[in-house]
């Protein structure tokens, strides 16, 4: 299962099997089996929606056991690293 380093630009899906609800941003840290991702945009039902400036989400690392099976909701975004 793919995991991502700090500074990686990622997409984190909100719901298993739903490709139309997600956030994209930069991994700023990894704490207690979760990523800290500084969000730069949010998509809901396939449409870009507003979000609070400074929003951070903390999805679980890929490969952990979750209520829907193994977690795998974080993937590479188009631009892989922010320098």
Describe this structure as you would to a colleague.
The protein is about 0% helix and about 55% strand. It has about 80 residues and is mainly β. It starts with 7 loop residues before the first strand and ends with a strand. The protein is built from no helices and eight strands. The protein has strands spanning about 10-15, 20-30, 35-45, 45-50, 55, 65, 70, 75-80.
What share of residues is helical?
A: under 10%
From the spread of the alpha carbons, the general shape counts as globular
**What do the pLDDT scores average to?**
89
How far apart lie the N and C ends?
Answer: 25 Å
- What is the number of strand segments? 8
Largest sheet: 6 strands, antiparallel
Report the structural category: mainly beta
Counted by DSSP, the helix tally is 0
Taking all Cα atoms into account, the compactness measure Rg is 12 Å
Order of helices and strands: EEEEEEEE
Name some characteristics of this structure:
83 residues; mainly beta; 6-stranded antiparallel sheet; two-stranded antiparallel sheet; 53% strand
Q: Which helices and strands appear, and what pairs or packs with what?
A:
Blueprint: E1 8-13, E2 22-31, E3 34-44, E4 47-49, E5 56-57, E6 65-66, E7 69-70, E8 74-81
Give a short summary of the structure.
This protein has 83 residues and is an all-beta fold. Helices cover 0% and strands 53% of the residues.
